[in-house]
């Protein structure tokens, strides 16, 4: 009987629950709106119903190894407490693991959502052939994860991986975390929109100004469309994104010398707009990166290339990674 | 019979070779000038003589477990080649491990000198009670090392740990590594002197200007003495040092969430001049650091404090760490 696990990707607006077999095949996926407004009890109730349903449905043909849940926020790994979750405000200090375990009568594993996405990419996506990688998820915010020897590096309190809060420009834009110039302020969808609004306000971006006035849903996606169509101001914004990511990845390469750096999340769709600047920054800023480029002077057997690449699993990464958690136990 | 090992700390101007027993006691230390000018053959010859002498001397009372050598430069861990060494120019591309092994007839272990110093601090110094730490060595340049699970994190090519080349200010001072605004440009002894010279040139530091004109050996140490004596310009330089280190350690805490960050090297003597700014930056820039401060809201059993501290072993760290290498095998 093949193994399977249930994975949950809990978002601020949607929740997905999947039965995933040991080969990574999604046997079934249940999608629901998270209905944050109805409160965490209702969300946990829906989640547990779906977990039970999927567990029962496949238990005649597969052996259930467990349940993994990706949660957007900071999780205390020891206690299973959600410490802080900007997208699920009433979940702070909520003993979510204990509560779900009580309802299900079995143990479950929690993971931060950016870490779950990295685990997914490590298992079946861009990182499937490497043991050590770093992932940056460019969404509304910027999430990050460090995978060492095939496992998430959690650090002392389970709070490691916050690449979105590394300072790109120490005197730059104020971040909600109280630091200044965080990567999140230059590479998230929120940041792309903010940079566009700033350009519009300065009077230097007439095309973007028109787009904003015509489109009530003006967003990072719209800025990207203008960039593709050749608008130079929009293109400049994505160069700023690439520069910021490049500065941070150069730091990471110099410090950890990992084999792979994976970029995912919605803004990574703009890869062709920001990646040329990103690679230029890496060559300029990291002698460790240059030493692993094909034209270096390392002798062949020692040469292993640093790979910077897009994520492959899209919005499934977190769901697949969550299901992977109990399989790795 | 207790174990012992021979450690070598190879510097640009001095070389020390020590027999160290399994408890960390230095049984005997031989110091020589490195005599870089006489060439690497002569240095290796002196080194091998001393290793042989110490090995023979203690072999009747102790069991020799091996020899470890700390080398200033980038080492290819697989081949044992020195890739680059600014302080030992004719050692680049030199198969130093093979050469020493040929002469001694036994295997030896190489390590980058900053990594060796971190291993020493981990074994007998500031990090003796932790498994995960990061070390920054503030010398002529700025070296770094990452220790995870008690072992040096080498990365894909053995080049990990280059904290000195993380960008503090991405548009800042040009670094020899081709990056801009590296930590090394704001926290090394070279940087302290450069910042003083810049202040003097701008006409804003009359006391330092007098010091430089009177003292042909004007150095970071002189700037430190002026800072201690209350010179505000000199104090401002060390605040800049603290700010730069704080920005980088905040990044490291956010990404790796390690338990300890150790600051060593000559410039760390100025701890009381730069550390207040360093701690202020950490509180301001790292929510992970704040979450591990005693006044946080983590529940008691989960609370473990992030420790930022001076190194304890001074210039012995690298020697002791080199001797530790064969003991960890």
What features would you describe in this structure?
- The structure is a homodimer of 329-residue chains.
- Chain A has 329 residues and is an alpha/beta fold.
- The first copy, chain A, folds into 2 domains: 3-125 and 315-328, ATPase, nucleotide binding domain (Nucleotidyltransferase, domain 5), CATH 3.30.420.40; 133-311, Nucleotidyltransferase, domain 5.
- The first copy, chain A, is built from 11 helices and 12 strands.
- Chain A has a 5-stranded mixed β-sheet. In chain A, strands 10-9-8-11-12 form a 5-stranded mixed β-sheet, covered by helices on one side. In chain A, strands 5-6 form a two-stranded antiparallel ribbon.
- At the A-B interface, β9, α8 and α10 of A face β9, α8 and α10 of B.
Quick summary:
2 copies of one chain form a homodimer. With about 325 residues, chain A is α/β, with parallel strands linked by helices. Helix content of chain A is about 40%, strand content about 20%.
Q: Which residues of chain A sit in consecutive blocks of at least 5 with pLDDT less than 50?
A: none
Q: What's the CATH class of the largest domain in chain A, please?
A: Alpha Beta
Structural class label of chain A: alpha/beta
Number of helices of chain A: 11
Oligomer: homodimer
The H-and-E topology of chain A, N to C, reads as EEEHEEEHEHEEEHHHHHEHHEH
List the helices and strands and how they pair.
Two copies of one chain form a homodimer.
Chain A: E1 3-10, E2 14-21, E3 26-33, H1 40-58, E4 63-71, E5 74-76, E6 81-84, H2 96-104, E7 108-112, H3 113-124, E8 133-138, E9 142-148, E10 151-152, H4 184-187, H5 189-201, H6 206-214, H7 220-228, H8 232-256, E11 260-264, H9 271-285, H10 287-291, E12 307-310, H11 317-328
Parallel strand pairs in A: 1-4, 4-7, 8-11, 11-12
Antiparallel strand pairs in A: 1-2, 2-3, 5-6, 8-9, 9-10
Helix pairs in contact in A: 1-2, 3-11, 5-6, 5-8, 7-8, 8-9
């Amino acid at each position: 009987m093949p193994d399977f696990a249930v994975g949950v990707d809990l978002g601020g607006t949607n929740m997905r629950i999947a039965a995933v077999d040991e080969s990574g095949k999604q046997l079934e996926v249940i999608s629901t709106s998270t209905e944050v407004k109805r409160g965490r009890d209702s969300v946990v109730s829906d989640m547990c119903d779906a977990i039970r349903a999927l567990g029962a449905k496949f238990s005649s043909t597969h052996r259930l190894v467990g349940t993994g849940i990706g949660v957007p926020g900071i999780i205390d790994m020891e206690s299973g407490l959600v410490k802080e979750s900007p997208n699920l405000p009433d979940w702070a200090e909520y003993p979510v693991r204990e509560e779900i375990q009580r309802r299900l009568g079995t143990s479950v594993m929690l993971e931060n959502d950016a870490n779950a996405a990295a685990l997914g990419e490590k298992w079946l996506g861009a990182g499937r052939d490497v043991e050590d990688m770093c992932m940056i998820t460019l969404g509304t915010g910027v999430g990050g994860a460090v995978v060492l020897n095939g496992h998430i590096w959690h650090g002392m309190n389970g709070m490691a991986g916050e690449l979105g809060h590394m300072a790109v420009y120490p005197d730059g834009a104020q971040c909600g975390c109280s630091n200044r110039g965080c990567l999140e302020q230059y590479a998230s969808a929120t940041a792309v929109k903010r940079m566009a609004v700033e350009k519009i306000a300065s009077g230097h971006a007439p095309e973007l100004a028109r787009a904003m006035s015509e489109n009530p849903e003006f967003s990072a996606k719209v800025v990207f469309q203008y960039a593709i169509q050749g608008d130079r101001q929009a293109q400049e914004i994505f160069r700023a994104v690439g520069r910021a990511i490049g500065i941070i990845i150069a730091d990471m390469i110099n410090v950890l010398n990992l084999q792979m750096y994976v970029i995912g999340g919605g803004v990574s769709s703009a890869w062709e707009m920001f990646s040329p600047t990103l690679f230029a920054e890496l060559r300029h800023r990291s002698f460790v990166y240059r030493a692993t480029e094909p034209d270096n002077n390392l002798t062949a057997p020692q040469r292993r290339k640093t790979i910077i690449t897009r994520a492959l699993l899209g919005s499934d990464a977190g769901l697949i990674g969550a299901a992977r958690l109990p399989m790795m136990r």
